[in-house]
Design brief:
Trehalose_TreY; Malto-oligosyltrehalose synthase; alpha/beta; GH13_cat_dom; TIM Barrel; 934 residues; six-stranded antiparallel beta sheet; globular; Maltooligosyl trehalose synthase, domain 2; GH
Length: 934
């Protein structure tokens, strides 16, 4: 059975089930992947389109086909020498609604529930209305208004008494059933009331309640008892004053406080996934929680149904490193029990966003990340640094906002702390205040000073989180913490700087282990609170706010990208690949995910725009004039704002498919609708003129009208179309280079569903649209020659042909790709900076990859036609590259090439194709290679 060498990410939901995937296994095998990489399969909310809103981690989702369908899919994969990697979500579960049995138990029994410690709930919040309760902010209007409206309806069914509210079900503690049953004029029901009230006197009421409920159901088999209970329930109808009083009194005795959804940001007393109140954080660091959450994935691993696990949002956990090491140990313990014929070791990947200069800790014992950093690395080398200044000037001139992405992030961090995550921020400040009160010398440090210092520290924190523990802050985090301290110090008054210094020590500068036990616990809690605060703040501020506010070029704003850097040098790219080869050679390497903001080929097209910055600026000036009549004047200003219009122009150019003509009314209508859905989300994420929590429908409507006007006004539409067509060839070349690098650099090549064809998708849910596998099938099983595919490159078959060939090459030489070393090759001559090349070796095997970058000037003729996607050899002038001596064969064109150690002209290397991948079985002279690399 094959090790994991190449994966295909699939998004499962009720319209694409495990059985649907099983029917396509032959297609996936022909594509060349070794494993499917599945979105979460454990039971999620009904109708979920992604699986990250799990409700029951103990079973496979029935909507996907259940475990029977999973076993059938894996059986089909095994028959083709393939396997499955499974995405799991240990950080959170979906709450609210009525589908999560663990959450429903917590609502029912409170802290006494068997799952009372599973969720990260502060049962002792300072708010007296939440003493021993959790906030349930799921109402669509203020509590009193909702109560008096009659929308909260007391009801009874086989599960017990509950208050129904739309899709929600708020259970009544069985110990309070007597408050309802005593209103029934029926002796048997009065007797049942006493049984339920007696539960308050027993040590384990949860285990005895089902028997009492069964007894009540037997009583209710009597029609007279049913009628009496129905009359009693009517007394709790809140449409009357007395009914509202009774229902409120009953709800006040429960283990939750119903509240308007807007209260969550300020008052919630349990950890959420980011600011999503429908997703409750789990305390997976607790052994019993870990065991319950992982029982199914570990069993599937033991039975040989999965060969790898991908851990979602590992930074949300209290102790990511400890979690990963524990899971690695549990997986390794299964090796003797796994069936013969499957990989003995189960791979472990983490979804981790690495900040600028940050590396994945090597002591986590994982195989690597899910690949966001490679998306950033390859995009970085495809952006022309010469375009940074003119595009930044354009953005500032048009939008009025500074082009400094870091400044946008800092502003957004402050806003997120004070709005979306205000309750989490307050909880962290209180945890630090408790640390202050633990010692005489710091007991006068006020909560207000702590809050100000904490805000400054979080605002300037350069990475998602640190990883301090009982032994203090690891050395790898020290530089990032110092950077945050320096920035925070400039933002604070002298007294608050002293508090900041204390925070530095309390948050890991000093090891909690040196403190006495009571203070040690307080410091550990404060460290955890802080580290679980900075991560969601970063996600909301960087990806979901600044990334939509700052648009020097939006292809540099995506998940895991470093928007403060417009471009990266090939030297940095090579260094990152070398580090991966050394530390995480089996990490996933991807260029598209279910979370990306723009499809991989949209980013590739916009990267090409960086090479024509001045021409773009001129075009924007014309478009502004032509579109002025489409703008609307509102009280808050022009709609759309000039900045929002500029972002829209970028998206239109980046996402306009090369085969879509303005005269195609149906195609243009679909394109417009997709852009309109993106636009609404982008405007709300930016949080400038509208917001998810308080949408400005007037502004959004005006922006949509502008979009529709732009794409239906002939002169303006046609001008945009011409500008989009100018990006077709360089964008396509960038996309093919991007795909080539993804499949040849160190790591496991990961392909996102459908991306063997052009990917012009936008942010989710657009990037999760159904894949037309039938349309891909003919060329998949009879791939055209690369030269033929390049001649018809606009239809996307060239990308599939490239994918099939390179994945087949990986299958023939698995150890070369998974374990081969990595050495950069450096070109010489006029266009040396437009070449990226490297060599990989494993034993006698050798791989040489040579691709162009920033090639728009070399594609001048192609920009004006529809011919073969190629760079005329003469355009490379005197550019040359020294290859390790040996005889090579192209994996793409089958031509042979002899290298004797002397530089080879790029015109010769790219004689057939505009990029090349060569393999050699001959032993090359390592000294010659090393000399050329230096």
């Amino acid at each position: 059975m094959n090790a994991i060498r190449a994966t295909l990410r699939l998004q499962f939901h009720r319209d694409f089930t495990l059985d649907d995937a099983r029917a396509l296994v032959d297609d996936f095998a022909a594509l060349g992947v070794s494993h499917l990489y599945a979105s979460p399969l454990q039971a999620s909310r009904r109708g979920s389109r992604h699986g990250y809103d799990g409700v029951d981690p103990t079973r496979i989702d029935d909507e996907l086909g259940g475990e029977t369908a999973l076993a059938a899919l894996v059986s089909a994969l095994r028959a083709r020498g393939m396997g499955l990697v499974l995405d799991i979500v240990p950080n959170h579960l979906a709450v609210g609604g009525s589908e999560n049995p663990w959450w429903q138990s917590v609502l029912t029994w409170g802290e006494q529930s068997p799952y009372g410690a599973f969720f990260d709930i502060d049962w002792h919040a300072p708010d007296p209305t939440l003493a021993g309760k959790l906030l349930a902010p799921f109402l669509g209007a203020p509590y009193a208004e909702t109560l008096e409206s009659g929308e909260l309806a007391l009801d009874f069914d086989a599960v017990g008494f509950h208050v129904a509210y739309h899709e929600h079900r708020f259970p009544i503690d069985p110990r309070h059933y007597g408050d309802i049953l005593r209103f029934a004029e029926h002796n048997a029901l009065h007797e049942q009331a006493a049984f339920f009230e007696a539960l308050a006197q027993v040590p384990d009421p949860c285990s005895l309640a089902p028997a009492a409920l069964s007894q009540l159901e037997r009583v209710l088999e009597d029609p007279s008892a049913q009628a009496s209970l129905a009359s009693a329930l009517q007394l709790f109808e809140a449409t009357s004053e007395h009914g509202a009083t009774r229902l409120h009194a009953l709800l006040s005795r429960q283990h939750y406080r119903l509240a308007f959804w807007r209260t969550a940001s300020d008052e919630i007393n349990w950890r959420r996934f980011f600011d999503v109140t429908e997703l409750g954080g789990l305390r997976v660091e607790q052994p019993e929680v870990f065991d319950a959450v992982h029982a199914l994935p570990l069993r599937l691993a033991r039975e040989g149904l999965v060969d790898g696990l991908r851990i979602d949002h590992v930074d949300g956990l209290a102790d990511p490193g400890g979690y990963c090491r524990h899971l690695r140990a549990r997986l390794d313990a299964l090796v003797p029990e796994r069936p013969e014929g499957v990989p003995s070791r189960v791979a472990l990947y983490v979804e981790k966003i690495l900040g600028d200069g940050e590396t994945l800790p090597t002591d986590w014992q994982v195989d690597g990340t899910s690949g966001y950093e490679f998306m950033n690395e390859v995009a970085g080398i495809q952006h022309d640094p010469q375009g940074a200044a003119p595009l930044a000037a354009l953005w500032h001139q048009v939008s009025g906002r500074a082009p400094d992405f870091s400044a946008e992030v800092r502003q957004a961090r402050g806003e997120v702390l004070e709005t979306l995550l205000a309750s989490e921020y307050a909880a962290c400040a209180r945890a630090l205040h408790a640390v202050a009160r633990a010692r005489l010398e710091s007991r006068d440090v006020t909560l207000g000073s702590i809050a100000r210092a904490l805000k400054a520290l979080v605002v300037h924190f350069p990475i998602y989180r640190s990883y301090a523990g009982d032994a203090g802050r690891p050395e790898a985090d020290a530089a990032f913490f110092r950077q945050a301290m320096t920035g925070a110090r400039h933002a604070l008054s002298p007294p608050d700087r002293a508090t900041l210094d204390r925070l530095e020590r309390w948050l890991g500068g000093e090891a909690p282990s040196v403190c006495r036990d009571d203070e040690r616990v307080l410091r550990q809690r404060a460290i955890t609170r802080f580290q679980q605060l900075t991560s969601p703040v970063a996600a909301k501020a960087v990806e979901d706010t600044a990334g939509y506010r700052s648009a020097v070029l939006i292809s540099r704003n995506d998940v895991g990208f470093h928007g403060e850097h417009f471009s990266h040098s090939p030297k940095r790219f090579h260094a990152a690949n070398a580090v991966r080869a050394r530390d995480f050679p089996h990490a996933l390497v991807t260029t598209a995910t279910h979370d990306h903001k723009r499809g991989e080929d949209v980013r590739a097209r916009l990267a090409a725009l960086s090479e024509s910055a001045d021409a773009f600026a001129d075009a924007v000036s014309r478009w502004q004039c032509d579109a002025a009549p489409l703008c609307q004047s509102l009280d808050e200003g022009t709609a759309p704002s000039p900045g929002d219009a500029l972002i829209l122009y970028q998206l239109i150019l980046g996402a306009w498919p090369p085969t879509l003509a303005p005269q195609d009314s149906a195609g243009m209508s679909e394109f417009t609708e997709r852009l309109a859905q993106w636009q609404q989300k982008a405007l709300r994420e930016a949080k400038l003129r509208t917001h998810w929590l308080w949408p400005d429908e007037q502004y959004e409507t005006a922006c949509r009208a502008f979009l529709e006007g732009v794409l239906t006004t002939p002169a303006l539409r046609d001008s945009l179309h011409r500008a989009a067509r100018a990006l077709d060839a360089p964008g396509a070349l960038n996309a093919l280079v991007q795909a080539t690098l993804r499949m040849t650099v160190p790591g496991v090549a990961d392909l996102y569903q459908g991306n063997d064809a052009w990917d012009f998708s936008l942010v989710d849910p657009d990037n999760r649209r159904p894949v037309d596998y039938a349309a891909r099938r003919a060329s998949l099983f009879a791939p055209p020659a690369m030269s033929e595919a390049l001649a018809q490159w606009r239809d996307g078959r060239v990308k599939q042909a490239l994918t099939v060939r390179l994945l087949a090459l990986r299958a023939r030489h698995p150890t070369l790709f998974l374990d081969g070393d990595y050495q950069p090759l450096h070109a010489q001559g006029q266009h040396a900076e437009r070449v990226v090349a490297f060599v990989r070796r494993q034993g006698e095997q050798c791989l040489v990859v040579v691709v162009p970058r920033l090639a728009t000037p070399l594609l001048k003729d192609e920009l004006e036609g529809d011919g073969v996607l190629a760079i005329a050899p003469a355009r490379w002038a005197d550019t040359r590259l020294a290859l390790p001596p040996g005889r090579y064969r192209s994996a793409l064109s089958e031509r042979s090439l002899d290298a004797d150690g002397e530089p080879v002209a790029l015109a010769e290397l790219f004689h057939t194709l505009p990029f090349e991948v060569f393999t050699s079985e001959a032993r090359a002279d390592r000294r010659a290679l090393q000399g050329e690399s230096t």
